[in-house]
Task: structure prediction
Amino acid sequence: MGKKEQQRKVVVPFSGTAKINYSSFNVQALLLIIIGLIFYSNTFLNEYALDDGIVIQKNEYVQQGFRGIPKILTADAYESFYKQMNAGQQLSGGRYRPLSIVTFAIEQQLFGSKEKMPPLNDIATIRHVANVALYIFSVIVLLFFLREYIFKENALAAFITCLLFLIHPIHTEVVANVKSRDELFSFLFIILTFIAAFRYRENKSNQNLFYGLLFYFLALLSKEYAITLLVLIPMLFYIVKVDKLEQSIITTLPFMALALVYLVIRYKIVGVGSSIEDPDVLNSPYKFATATQEWATKIELLNHYLKLLIYPTPLSSDYSYNTIPYLNFTNIRVWLAILIHLALIVLTIILFFKRNIIAFGLAFYLLHLFLISNLFMDIGATMGERLIYHSSFGFLLIIALYISWGLQKINNVTTKNAVGIFLGVLLIFWFGKITIARNFDWKNDTTLFIADAKTVPNSALVNGNAGKGYIDLSEKPENKLRENELIQKAIYHLNRAIEIHPKYVNGYLNLGVAYFKLKEYENANQYWDKAKFIYPNNPFLKKNYTLLASVYFNEAMNIGKEQPLVAIRFLEKAVAIDSLNADYWYNIGGANFTIKNYDSARKAWEKTLQLKPDYIQAQQGMAALPK
Result:
């Protein structure tokens, strides 16, 4: 038996004469399944959070089930949301990622509520279970790919790569947030494309080419990231199969042709996105930065991703304005990021021509990183943990290679096994503690943003959503005795949000709601007026104003007989908010008639009849007025 084979085949006693071959695929796959379930089974009872609402719950195409699929396949991922929000073209982001949304529609048809307004957490559990299953399955497929094609002589490196990928806490957002199924699908179909491409390269089978192109198209329909395979596939053939560079490129030509077809389809459906600058800094994160600040900050953010991969805590669902302050090129961290990433690019090129697999890991990391870095295209966000999901594979593959190399340097088998087990247990416990706790944060919007407000206290969005979370908590029956306390916490975070971002519409809307609950109606009206000034077409404003006007009306009705003058003032506030309500005008007329202010009564009833000509009581009132 050769030395390499001895290194691969590690046999550990189990009980009696039975032995488990821990280097076998089945055993490694089983271990990964068990660990994956331990890490993520606590997401099964989670509800929806973050963008789940706009992608799933409030997406009319998803709620239509099978009937909505044709529209999903021919529309921007957020089209339904844009329509509901009366959003202009500036919010159109050119997001063509229909595959995961199609699966949400299928789930809705098969398991979801058939009511027009489904329950808040309609089949959330089914979707969370599906996400965890998809995540673990993708890791098993990755294990197969690495063992069969990348590390044929080093099963240990393949397993360590998959273990690190499975347990890394930065993946909690992708797994625990249902909407991020697009990331899961994208990565899975990228790995399946690699497998089929290798098989096609080995036997030139049309069947394998068909599967390769099918998986590649599904990867593209999941998310645009799969475009990187036009570089990564020939790169692997050159490094692993030792093909000539030109031959590697020729083998990849069918995938290049399909990518072109996809780009044409994508352009026909969603174009290139909006050419209008978004007026909201939450969607245009560098709106207030100078050109040099914008570039310096984008570059330095590359190191933020690197830091989270090395030391994944604390984690946050949001990194928008003003979580990460703008930087200048005078900051040493910017130059450190430049040096690190230039060195990685140069190292990738050098190792590529040496046919070193580390070059593939570096390329996988860098290509996907640059896609989401804002350096070449604006993605509408500063950064996000879900965005580094693909890149993390390249990074962890390199780490696994070095761990494997270090273990293989230990000649004593007992010592080697002890060190390997110690490192594995240490990482599993450390990462498991972070991941399992973070999964609880992802239970719903309230738990998520209240937790993240401590992590990113300078985020306008997180503070605003934490404020909304406290309002929601105040409405729960079990919190009745703490209602005012919770509303005061909401006001604190909402004031913090508009202090950071003075044009934050949702901050003003929810401040109005908070003061409304405290029965400070003038303050509520004031904040809703500010929201209206910034975003006149906001669909929530009409509902809020209507509710406030009805409160003034009810106050007037309660005191009308005893204090008609005060009642008139309340009714005037009601019509100032809802000037098209005939009932309010009629009662203004009635109150003025009571105090014999006949001119004002006549004007109010004339307005009533203008709005509703067949209003009988107003007609009778006009007839009763002195001539």
Summary: The longest helix spans residues 413-441. Confidence is low (pLDDT under 50) at residues 1-17. The longest strand covers residues 11-15. The two ends are 117 Å apart (CA to CA).
